[in-house]
Amino acid sequence: MRGACTRRCWRRRAPRVATFHAFCQELLTRFPVEAGVPPGFELTETQGVLADTAWDALCAEAADAPGGAVAAALEHLFAWAGTYETARAAVMALLARRADWWAWTEDGDDPVAFACDDLRAFLDVDETQEPAAGFLAAQREPIARVREALAARANKGDLAHVEAIDAALATADPGEALETITPAFLRKTDGLPIEQGRKVNNPLVKALGGEGRAQQFVADHFAVAEALQLTHDALLRRDNLALGRAWYAAGHRLVEHFQALKHEQRLLDFTDLEWQAWRLLNTSDHAEWVQYKLDARIDHLLVDEFQDTNPSQWRLLRPLLAELAAGAADERARTVFLVGDPKQSIYRFRRADPRLQDDASRWLQEHLDAVAVELHASRRSAAPIIELVNRVFDGARVATSLPAFTAHDTVRTDLWGRVELLPPSLPDADDEDADDDAIPERLRDPLTEPTPIERDERFHREGLAIAERLGALIDAGTSIGSGDDGARARLGRA
Question: What DSSP string describes 192-245?
Answer without folding.
Answer: PBP-TT-S--HHHHHHHTSHHHHHHHHHHHHHHHHHHHHHHHHHHHHHHHHHHH
